[in-house]
Every structure is written in structure tokens, then in C-alpha cells.
Amino acid sequence: MEVTINTVSDCDREMLVNMTQDELQPHFEKAYREAAPNLEIKGFRKGKVPMHIIKKMFGASIEYQTIEEITNDTFRKEIETRNINPIGTPTIINIDFKPGTPLSFKVKYEVKPDFELKDYRSIAVEKYVHKANETEIQSEIERLQQINAANEDAPKVDGDNFAVTVDMIDYDEQGKLLASSKRNGMRISLKEKQTEQEIKDALQGVAVGDVKEVQFEHQHGDHTHKVHLQITVKKIEKVILPSADDALAKKVSNDKFQTIEELKQNITKDLNEFWADRSERRFESDLLNEIVKQYDFAVPESLVQSVIDTYIDDAKSQQPNRQLPKGFDEKKYRDSARGTAVWQAKWLLIKEQFITKEKIEISDAEIEKIAEEESTKLNIDKARLLNFYKTSENALERLKYNRLIDILKQNIKIKEVETDDYSKFAVN
Amino acid sequence: MGILIQPLLTEKMTELAATRQYAFRVDQAANKIEIARAVEKKFNVNVTSVRTLIVKGKIKTQLTRRGRVEGRKGDWKKAIVTLKDGQTIDFLATV
């Protein structure tokens, strides 16, 4: 048997196999022997057809059927012998065989790319940090005041601390009222940041029963459209905010905090924790980007596709019937997700090598410790968590991943950058 | 229709092939001489003997709404030819 392996690209390989008739014969003989007991021909009892008649009558079809088995077996044995680990599904192509002639076939398969881990200790990543400031704390206090506000009917709007209940109706492009667009009883808070300024302005000074027209351009995603409304005022309420004092602190915290200062301190702590978490996530994302950027190897297509498959499975699992929505263009989705999937596949390969190189293993004692910590944090039975970590491959992988991230964080150069720019905390 | 209708390929006839005997379904009107000539011509062999027999057609029963209907398959003629030493016929080559 002649076996040649061609390297088509970093990950693509082609195995060419040539087998002589003599090498094939034992496989065919075995196939004839296996087929004989089940063959039925008129004039012969079942299983009693002489071998030479079987060969004459069914030889070709038995041999063609056996070829598939031979190609699979041969490929499997060859990759075992040569210690090749194909990923994805190998494809047998170009089978060249006619009864009585040698067999040649080609198998296309993918392997993980061969690459050396690079030194990550020289990587420098900026870590954006943000401390809660007075404006944010004040804004949170105001939010709590709004939630706990009292409302009092008023005859007229006079300032921002009002909520107005209105009926709204749209005008069409020709300036006619669109009856079908009528929305009744909409409550508009004039303090609400999301409300269009034009509406807020139009409602200043109105009394119950007033009718106002408002026109503005509404930003919708990447485009704007013109809005023309008729607003009829149905009810006006004055929003009476509670004072930002100790009483408010007691009320919103169910007596956990006795003074407004204590409440502020707690808000500061919560906000700092929130920003620390966002900062950590963004930093982790930037760190992985920097690492992946170091490598320039081709990623096996089957791995990319399997990553996209997981995205699609995730999308399915988020649907009520676990089916993709009607009209979902899978091909278009696959194309659009490709960039992210390539990145993800690359990181998976790098991560795997890192875990091997750093000899990251999670011992039973460590799992026990993690389960104990998580059990307290998540209020889940420790034994259940322990069982989950010990039996779930994904959970174990996650623990190894966390360990790897810790190692990376400890060894790279981190430059902390204090910022008030919230966009810096978005994860790419 | 020719004299040789079809070769008979059965377990029994396969065993007989070991002694150079081959069987055919033949035209009922054909005699041994005609059968021998037909075999010699078709397979390019020498026939040393021909034995013939009439196989009685089987009775076939069918259950219908009008009751049991019995019918009969037609009789047919079988010929067993013996070839000269060292000669063989490969039926499957012509199948």
C-alpha cells in the first residue's frame, strides 16, 4: 500500500492511498463470506449459493460496497499509526476503482495548525478604571427620590416635576390625523431623560384639555424620521419628591441604613463594584485581543463552522420553541458571524496550548474549595455544585480558563487608566 | 423461439456440473439431436449425451370470491447434456 500525505495549507491535508488488487482481495473474500449466508437466488436454498456463482453474479456490487469500508478502515488505521488527529469530518474524495483493478482514493481532512506559543509577558494592556463620582451618586439618589415620589393632581404644568397623562395621535405625511395611530392614557414624566425635549417643551404651561402639536426628528438606530403628533392633555400630576434625608435612607433600605450618609456610602460601594466588574470584563476582552493579535496562523474551517454552530444553537435556545425565527437567513448569519467565529476559534487553539504548556489541572481539592465558595455566593447546595464541577466537561474547562486568565493577568504589563468615558467599558 | 430456452442454474445442477452435465429448459418439440446441436453451436463444445424429460406443470390454487380456483402451469421439457471430457460451460458469462 502506498500512502502519501500532501500539505495543502496550514490546516488542510490530503491523504492519497493506492492499494493493489492483492491487498484488496482479503477484504473482498471476507465480504463474500459475510454476504453468502444471506443471498437468495432462485434454484438455491438460502445460503447455499456456491461462492463462484456469488462472485460471478454479485461480485462487482459486493466489491463496490466493500470499497467504502476499506477506505474508511484504511484511513482510520493510517491516522492511528501516524498519530494524526484530524478535526471536523474528513471527506473521502476521488475513489478510483473498478473490479479487478487497484484502488486509489484521496481523503481531505483538517488538522490543528502547528504554531509556537509566543511570549505574552511583554504584552501591555491598558486597564480602564473608574471611581464613582459625586454626579453618579447624586443621580442615583435622584432616581430613588423619583421612585419614592408622591403625586398630586395639578391644574397646570409649571416646571419639570410634573407627570402628564395624554392621548397621542400621529399625523400622516399629508398632514392628516391617523386615527389608527391613537394611543390613549400615556403617562409622560417631564423629568425623564428619554422623553423627547420637543414634547417636554410643548407640555410646559399646559392645562387639562389643552391640545398641542409637536414636530421633531426621531433618531432610530442609524437613521432619523420625522414625527408629527397631536397631544391632548388628560391629567396633570405634580411629582412631589421626598427630601434626600435620613428618612429616605431608612425607607429605601428597609431600615438597613439610618442616615443619608450611610446610604450614599453604600451607593458608592455598589457603583465602585459595578465599575470594577465592567473594568475587569473590558480588560479581559482587551487582553485576549492582544494575545490573539500575536498569532497569524490559519484556522481550520471546520472549527470555525462548529463555533458558528454553537452561536446558532444559542440563538435557538433563546427562542420559546427552540427553533430559529421564521425568515431567519442562516447563510447570511453565518457570513456575518464569521469574523467573530474565526477569532474565537483562534483563541480556542491558543488557549488549549496555553493550558497544556502551563500544565493547568484542577485538582479535587481545588474543586472542593471552589464549590464551597460558590455555594455560599450563589446559595446552592455544595454537594450539587461539586457533582456539577466533577462531571461537567464544560464546567471543568471554565475553571481551567479562569486559572489561565489569572496567570495571564499576573504576568502581563497592566497600565491602569482612570477615565470618566463610559464607552471605554463596552466589551468589544 | 430457439431450441434452448434458458439454462437451469440450481443447487442440484451446480453439483452435476462437476461431472460436465448441464441442464436447459428446451423447446418441447425439440429432439435430442437438435438439442445437442444447439448446445454445441451456442457454447462451442462437444456434447456426448443428451437426456430429456417432461416436467409436469405445478397445480396452482387461488382463492377468489367465487371460491377456490385451481389452475395448472404448463409442462416443460428439461434436457441434461453431458460434455466431452475437459469441456465446461460458463452460464454466467452469458447471463
Provide the fold topology.
The complex is a heterodimer of chains A (428) and B (95).
Chain A: E1 2-7, E2 12-19, H1 21-35, H2 51-81, E3 86-96, E4 103-111, E5 124-129, H3 134-147, E6 150-153, E7 162-170, E8 183-189, H4 197-203, E9 211-220, E10 223-240, H5 246-252, H6 260-293, H7 301-317, H8 330-357, H9 364-378, H10 382-391, H11 393-411, E11 413-418
Parallel strand pairs in A: 5-11
Antiparallel strand pairs in A: 1-2, 2-4, 3-4, 6-10, 7-8, 7-10, 9-10
Helix pairs in contact in A: 1-2, 3-6, 5-6, 7-8, 9-10, 10-11
Chain B: E1 4-7, H1 11-16, E2 21-26, H2 32-43, E3 47-55, E4 59-64, E5 67-72, E6 76-83, H3 91-94
Antiparallel strand pairs in B: 1-2, 2-6, 3-6, 4-5
Mind explaining what this structure looks like?
The complex is a heterodimer of chains A (428) and B (95). Chain A has 428 residues and is an alpha+beta fold. Chain A has three domains: 2-110, Alpha-Beta Plaits (2-Layer Sandwich), CATH 3.30.70; 150-240, Transcription elongation factor, GreA/GreB, C-terminal domain (Chitinase A, domain 3); 260-297 and 358-425, no CATH class. Chain A is 46% helix and 22% strand. Chain A contains eleven helices and eleven strands. Chain A has helices at residues 21-35, 51-81, 134-147, 197-203, 246-252, 260-293, 301-317, 330-357, 364-378, 382-391, 393-411; strands at residues 2-7, 12-19, 86-96, 103-111, 124-129, 150-153, 162-170, 183-189, 211-220, 223-240, 413-418. In chain A, α5 (246-252) crosses α6 and α10 packs across α11 (393-411). The longest helix of chain A has 34 residues, at 260-293. The radius of gyration of chain A is 35 Å and the shape is elongated. Chain B is an alpha+beta fold. Chain B has one domain (4-94): Alpha-Beta Plaits. Chain B contains three helices and six strands, in the order βαβαββββα. In chain B, a hairpin with a 2-residue loop joins β4 (59-64) and β5. The radius of gyration of chain B is 16 Å and the shape is elongated. The chains are: A alpha+beta (428), B alpha+beta (95). The A-B interface holds A 41, 43-45, 48, 50, 53, 56-57 and B 8-11, 13-14, 92-93, 95.
